[in-house]
Amino acid sequence: MDSEKISQIADIMATHGLARVRVEESDGSAVELEYGVAAPAAPMPASVAPSFSPAPAPAAAPAPVEPAPEAPAPADETLDMAHTTAVRAPMVGVFYAAPAPGAEPFVHVGSKVKKGETLCVIEAMKVMNEVTAEADGEVVDICVKDGDLVEYGCCLMKIY
Fold it and tell me: What is this structure's pTM?
C-alpha cells in the first residue's frame, strides 16, 4: 500500500473521528492505522505493514472542568461493583457533563438520580442529545471526561 493511500485513510479517520482502522488488500496484505498508539515492540509479519500514527487534528479545547468531589463511602457499607448498571453512549459524539461551558455538571460521583433524570449530553452533528437515567440509583463512577469523543456503546458512567 502506498503512502498516498495511507494518508487518505488517515484523513478519513480524522474527518470522521475514528480512532482505529484496519484495511486489508486483495493480495492479503493489511495496514492498521491508530491515533495516539505507539507501534508494537515485536516485529510484524512481512504481510502486514507497520502502524502509522499521525498526530490528531487540533481541536478547540473544552472549558476546564473541576473534578467532582469524591463521596466517602461509609465504613460499614461496601460497594459491590458487580451490581452496578452501566450507562452507555447511545451514539458517537462528544460527551458533555454540563449543560453549558462553565456550568455545574448534571451529576457528580455520589449524586442520587431518579429514572428519566438527565445525566449528561452527547453532541452529534451540532445537536445536543440528552442521556437520561434508566433507573433510580447513585452515580458511583464517571468513566469519561468532559469534552471526550465517545463511541457508540462505550460506558459513560456507572449507577448503583
Answer: 0.50
Residues in the chain: 160
What single string gives the DSSP state of each residue in 80-100? -GGG-EEEE-SSSEEEESSSS
The SS3 call for residue 79 is: coil
Residue 49: burial class (beta carbons within 10 Å; 0-12, 13-18, 19+): middle
Q: Tens digits of per-residue pLDDT, 126-140?
A: 899 999 998 899 999
Tell me the one-letter amino acid at 17.
G
In the three-class reduction of DSSP (H, G, I as helix; E, B as strand; rest coil), residue 94 is classed as strand
Contact indicator for 113, 106 with CB cutoff of 8 Å: no
- Identify the CA nearest to 128 among candidates 155, 96, 157: 96
CA–CA distance from 116 to each of 79, 103, 135 (Å)? Answer: 24, 21, 7
CA neighbor of 6 nearest in space, from 27, 29, 38 = 29
Distance CA(132)–CA(107), nearest Å, equals 11
Q: Which residues contact 23 (CB under 8 A, 6 or more apart)?
A: 1, 9, 30, 31, 32, 33
Q: 72 is written with which cell numbers?
A: 466517602
DSSP classification of residue 156: E
